[in-house]
Description:
- The protein is an alpha/beta fold.
- It has 2 domains: about 5-145, Conserved hypothetical protein from pyrococcus furiosus pfu- 392566-001, ParB domain (Alpha-Beta Complex), CATH 3.90.1530; about 155-295, no CATH class.
- It is about 50% helix and about 10% strand.
- It has a 6-stranded mixed β-sheet with strand order 1-3-5-4-6-2.
- Helix 5 (about 155-175) packs parallel to helix 7, helix 8 (about 215-240) packs across helix 9 (about 250-270) and helix 9 packs across helix 10 (about 275-285).
- The relative contact order is 0.10.
Amino acid sequence: xxxxxxxxxxxxGRGHFSRAYSRxxxxxxxxxxxxxPMELLSFDEVKDKLDLQNQTxxxxxxxxxxxxxxxxxxxxxxxxxxLPKNSSMSDRWSRIYALFHSQEGPPPIxxxxxxxxxxxxxxxxxxxxxxxxxxxxxxxxxxELTTPIDLEPDMTPAQWDSATAYAGFLTETGLNKTRPQxxxxxxxxxxxxxxxxxxxxxxxxxxxxxxxxxxxxEEAAAQWYDTVYRPAITLIRKYDILDEDDPHTExxxxxWMLEHLRLVQQEYGEAPLRLSDALVDYxxxxxxxxxxxxxxxxxxxxxxx
Length: 305
């Protein structure tokens, strides 16, 4: 693939490799302390978790190196910043360093694009050398795989777990297709999406029983979103329940509201249950003043099944 390098550049490359290799441990340690991602992601694992099927070749583009988050088959060989983790890479890394300083330069790398982050298919060493030399972009042959969720390069492992759980929820419910301009459901705990899915399934069961129909899960999810979830979020926003410093999301509070109403129903029977009642109890439980208008809300009762 590569011609024999200039000996002087090869030796110079060894020096740069040695310094990059020495920094790899300390770089990962600092990222650990700062709560930043340390490891490259495995493309195959991400592809499986997100259940990515469709891909499209997008051609040759300049891509930002700081948006590369993973690799195909080499995720254990480099840090997230593409510092080399294995001393046996020295010769190959140094040859590529020399190639960067040659007249022809390195060929484009090959990458997969998922939302707004990249995974290196071919050219991991070239990325490592380029970042060591201070490059901000590289030319790459790009193949895109579509996903309904937003991805960012600085996401932590926990955020990736949450993102993959959200992708699974959207795949099951089809909300990204039936309500594409509206749906944005963020939950702090990945398990929360399974709770929401159970809500949708219960809604479908109740709806089919009451209406004498047999709507699909996708149709039920759209109805649930319009008649249960969105009204709950509207109430939360109307009374400004969550402030900017609150670690919980609107969807977290929605889950609390539904589970709270379920407990109330179990204890007190089949009295009408309203989302506004759950918000009143939430504020009272947290010793927050309850707005008078919230107490007087005349929202529809919901059937918990």
